[in-house]
Structure formats: C-alpha cells, structure tokens
Design brief:
Layout (H helix, E strand, L loop, with lengths): L16 H4 L66 E9 L5 E5 L8 E5 L3 E6 L2 E2 L5 E2 L12 E6 L9 E7 L5 E8 L6 E12 L11 E3 L5 E4 L22 E5 L27 E4 L6 E4 L6 E5 L5 E6 L15 E2 L2 E2 L16 E4 L6 E6 L11 E6 L4 E6 L9 E5 L4 E6 L5 E5 L4 E9 L2
Parallel strand pairs: 2-25
Antiparallel strand pairs: 1-27, 2-3, 3-4, 4-5, 4-6, 7-8, 8-9, 9-10, 11-12, 12-13, 13-14, 15-16, 16-17, 17-20, 18-19, 21-22, 22-23, 23-24, 25-26, 26-27
Length: 445
C-alpha cells in the first residue's frame, strides 16, 4: 500500500465528472472516506501498478490505526490457451453525458432499454444507443449525494412490464440514513412517479461511509439488499459479526406488505426465531458489499466485498445462495486474518474464491457471470474490476474454490459499477467521465 493511502482509504463517489479522474470514489464501491476530498486536491505520487489512483481522503472520524505493511505483490498470470477465460476484452462506448453514473441494468421487460443510476438521484434511460433527455425517475430532492452517499441501487420487480409497474431503489436520505423504497412506473413506460414512494426499510447509518447500495431479486423471487458495516475504519461497532444489527449483512425480504409492516420476512431466512437476531439477515460478515449479482443461468450468488487496507475479495456463495454464510469480516480480510494478516483459526468462515492485493488496486467493483450471446468467448466467465486502477479481471464461474484472477484488460476507466441488460450483455459505468461502455470479448491471440 503506498504511503499516501491511509488504512481506511476509498474513492469518494458522487463528485462532478469534471473533478473525478483524480479523485477516489467512496461509495460502497470503496466505502471508506467519510467525505469527498475537495476539488483541486493535488495528484498523488505515481504508482507503477495504477493508472488512475487518487489523493488521500480525509481520515475517518475514529482515527485509523497505523497502516500495516504492504502485502506481497499479487501475481497476474497469463491465460493459458484453451482456458475458458483465455479471452481478450475490449470496451465500446455506448453513451456519455451522464452525471456520476454508478449502475446500469435492464428492466427484464424485453424492451431493450438500459436504465442508468446517477448518484445525485436520477435514473436515466438509454434506448437504441441514445440517452433520453427526460429521466425515468428524479428523486434528487430527497437524496443526500456525495462521498459514499446518494442513489446507489436499482432493482425491477420480476415480471416488470405492462402488468407490473413496481421497482425498488436504495438511497441515502437527507439525514444520511439508508432507505429502501418502492416506486411505480406511470402509464408512460419511460416515466416513473416520484410521488408513488413506499418506504420498506430505513437503516440508521452511524457514519457517512460503508453504505453498501446494491439490491437485486434472486432466483427465488426475494429481494436481497447489501449493507455496509456502518463505516469508520476496522468495524468499530463489530457490526459484521453481530446478529442484532442490519449493518454488515446481506438481507433477504419479501417486499410485499405484511400484517405487521411494509415488508415480509421469508420464514426460511436462517435466523428467523433466533433470540436477539434480526430475521431479515441472510448472510453476515461483510464489510462493504458494494456490488453483488446472481448468475442468470445457474442462480449462483456472487459478492464482491471492498477490503480494508490490504486485500479486495470476491465471494462465491456456498450452496448457490449462501444461506446463513459468514464471510468473516472483521475477523478476516480476504483469506487473511484481520488485522494482523497472519495465519489463524478460521472457524466457519466462507473464504473468497478470489482476492488481490493493494499493489493492483484499492477498491473491488463486483460484476457478473457473462451469459449473453454476442461474446461467446466470455461464456461462464465472472468479470469484475477495480475502481482505482481500472483493471478488469475474470475467473471461471465453475472453477475451483480458490482462483488467481486473470487480467483481461487495462481499461483506463474509473469502474464504478458493472451492468447487465435483458439479453445478458455486460456494461461498465465510468464515474469520472459520465459514460457507459459495452464489454466485448473475443478469443485471446
């Protein structure tokens, strides 16, 4: 880890694109700094392994401990011929002109539209390669945006279309707390009604960082929600391991109203009936699961969890969905015990399928298993990247439990998120220049 990067580092997200490339995004994406660095901050020392690293964000309010020794350099092997991930990846610009884009998704309605989330509180539509002028939804009047806060996630209800108008968002409200809310599309398929908001869940945030942000419907039809550990550095609340808090978790709910509240808790959630445990919890031991995804073919759950000061990790949930899984934070960072980095007992923890050290980046951005038809060379590859270095990696989705990521591209992009359209094609969003890029794969030469 370079000397200018504090142990609780992270890109400060949500800054205007004009400021961005020299700034670190903070979101759940990187989820560390309590506030964004000011515009015009000096550029950091150059790094031999990073193409777009950024200045040091302010120290966390609790004051992080001294930085640990740098990890050993992470190997980046070449893909062997015949390997399922022996591919080359190129990017094709889809659209620009967005304001801090940080997620993209299809609606599942077969329309071919791509919906792009802007951190400030708007959802934009890309149709036939063109960015529409009018937003699909604008709730900027109720969103606190900046640093790691803002409109952070979007999920359309299964069956969304003429007979199903509901969709869900994850945003930071004006008080700085997390809100999960339902909205409805209007009679115009390109417009949603801001007045239709129905709040399902509100989570108090003790700090301004580590907000998580992702939400997605699983193959079981339930709504999954990723939450950060509440922020600061080193999980001072021990939220990752506690069962009496929704922080540092993957939650699972039925978003339909119940007899006792605005949503229902599925009876097969692992901690239903456990004294002192929140029944919404599906999995625990997460630091800042900025992006997770379900394989659209197999249903397998993938969670990329942003690291503390040494390692970034990608988790493949055991048994497909990982019911009751404990991913180890804050006892583990990647495959290493925290904070020492030494070997130790790891009782019951799910270890990541892939990790990389901070010699290669500083904030993992989780992606998807490719299941589209336009790039058959990518079939079955789980793609993910790093916000700070712009590197894009792949691993075999059906490969062994421990893999070394294969470097597929040095994108030069500030990878704030990946996205998937209705056909299974993949995209990435570039926070810095307000653009969306299509991912294209071909056999490596």
């Amino acid at each position: 880890m370079p000397p200018w990067a504090p142990i609780d580092r992270g890109p400060a997200l949500g800054l205007a694109p004009a400021v961005a490339l020299g700034l670190i995004v903070g979101l759940g994406v990187v989820g560390c700094s309590p506030s964004a660095p000011p515009a015009g901050s000096p550029a950091p020392p150059s790094s031999a392994v990073a193409t777009s690293l950024a200045p040091t964000p302010p120290q966390s309010p609790t004051g992080p401990p001294a930085p640990p020794p740098s990890p050993s350099p992470t190997p980046v092997p070449s893909a062997a011929p015949g390997d399922p991930i022996a591919v080359r990846v190129d990017l094709e610009r889809l659209v620009g002109g967005l304001d801090a884009p940080l997620f993209a998704t299809g609606a599942g309605d077969g329309s071919g539209r791509l919906f792009v989330v802007e951190q400030g509180g708007r959802i934009r539509i890309v149709r036939d390669g063109r960015l529409l002028d009018a937003p699909f939804l604008d709730i900027s009047d109720r969103v606190r945006s900046g640093g790691e806060q803002g409109l952070l996630g979007l999920a359309f209800r299964p069956g969304f279309g003429p007979d199903e108008a509901r969709f869900y968002v994850n945003y930071t409200d004006r008080a700085g707390d997390t809100v999960i809310a339902e909205y409805r599309r209007t009679a115009d398929p390109d417009r949603a009604d801001p007045a239709s908001e129905r709040i399902l869940l509100r989570i108090d945030q003790p700090f301004a960082n580590h907000n998580g942000g992702m939400l997605a419907f699983g193959p079981d039809g339930r709504l999954y929600i990723g939450t950060g550990d509440g922020g600061s550095a080193g999980d001072p609340l021990d939220a990752g391991q506690r069962r009496d808090t929704l922080l540092g978790k993957l939650l699972r709910i039925d978003p339909d109203p119940g007899s006792t509240g605005p949503y229902r808790v599925p009876p097969d959630n692992p901690f239903v009936g456990t004294p002192g445990a929140r029944p919404e919890i599906w999995a625990l031991g997460l630091r800042n699961p900025w992006r997770f995804a379900f394989d659209r073919l197999t249903g397998q759950l993938w969670i990329a969890d942003v690291g503390q000061g040494r390692y970034e990790e990608v988790n493949r949930a055991p048994d497909g969905l990982g019911r009751g899984a404990n991913y180890g934070w804050a006892r583990m960072e990647g495959r290493h015990c925290y904070p020492s980095g030494e070997g130790c007992a790891r009782p019951g923890f799910v270890l990541p399928v892939a990790e990389y050290g901070h010699d290669l980046g500083c904030s993992v951005t989780g992606g998807y298993v490719y299941r589209g038809g336009a790039s058959p060379a990518l079939a079955g590859v789980y793609l993910f990247g790093d916000y700070c270095s712009g590197r894009l990696w792949g691993i075999a989705s059906g490969g062994p439990a421990e893999q070394v990521p294969i470097l597929l591209a040095e994108t030069g992009r500030t990878i704030s998120s990946f996205g998937q359209d209705d056909a299974g094609e993949l995209y990435l969003t570039d926070l810095a220049d307000g653009s969306v890029w299509r991912i294209v794969g071909s056999p490596a030469r």
